[in-house]
């Protein structure tokens, strides 16, 4: 992938130096509050390799977000093709993120996600980008709204991969943004 530069960030493929941070964000109780599992180092490394390969192959994915001024990796923001039928059609483009807690509340996710939406609509030519989160994950749904995404309550769903041991994490809210809506938001700014 060709790195994407924003005002403060570089969105790029994963590098070996990012492995420790990637494991930390996938095993940290605070970061993973709305996920039913914590990844071991081996599981985290496997996902890291899969994401890096996908980003290299496709030119996008859940890619590393790095602070341009320091070179510090803070987590990931990116686009990924979904596979959650029948709730979300296979191949829909999802926007998602996960940052280490010390980088929360600084606008990094919104800044990076805006750049990824531009990529989705202008480079890939997608008609729509979707996102979803556990119903009470207020931090993530606030980002979705800041991005101009619209909640579609009729498309909320019980996530099929959430284990029975975590019923409170099963219900997910669904958000979407069309290319036309994104163009309108862009023109208004």
TrEMBL record:
InterPro entries: Acyl_CoA_acyltransferase, GNAT_dom, N-acetyltransferase
Protein name: RimJ/RimL family protein N-acetyltransferase
GO MF annotation list: acyltransferase activity, transferring groups other than amino-acyl groups
One Pfam family of this chain: Acetyltransf_3
Span of domain N-acetyltransferase: 9-180
PROSITE patterns documented for this protein: GNAT (PS51186)
């Amino acid at each position: 992938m060709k790195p994407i530069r924003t005002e403060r960030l570089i969105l790029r493929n994963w590098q070996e130096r990012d492995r420790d941070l990637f494991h930390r964000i996938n095993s940290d109780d605070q970061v993973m509050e709305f996920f039913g599992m914590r990844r071991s180092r081996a599981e985290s490394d496997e996902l890291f390799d899969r994401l890096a390969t996908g980003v290299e192959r496709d030119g996008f994915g859940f890619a590393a977000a790095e602070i341009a001024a320091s070179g510090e990796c803070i987590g990931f923001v990116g686009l990924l093709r979904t596979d959650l039928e029948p709730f979300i059609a296979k191949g829909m483009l999802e926007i998602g993120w996960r940052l280490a807690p010390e980088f929360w509340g600084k606008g990094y996710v919104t800044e990076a996600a805006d750049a990824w939406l531009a990529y989705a609509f202008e480079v890939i030519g997608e008609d729509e980008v979707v996102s979803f989160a556990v119903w009470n994950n207020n931090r993530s749904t606030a980002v979705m709204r800041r991005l101009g995404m619209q909640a579609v309550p009729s498309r909320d769903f019980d996530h099929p991969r959430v284990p029975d041991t975590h019923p409170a994490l099963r219900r997910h809210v669904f958000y979407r943004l069309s290319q036309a809506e994104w163009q309108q938001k862009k023109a208004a700014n």
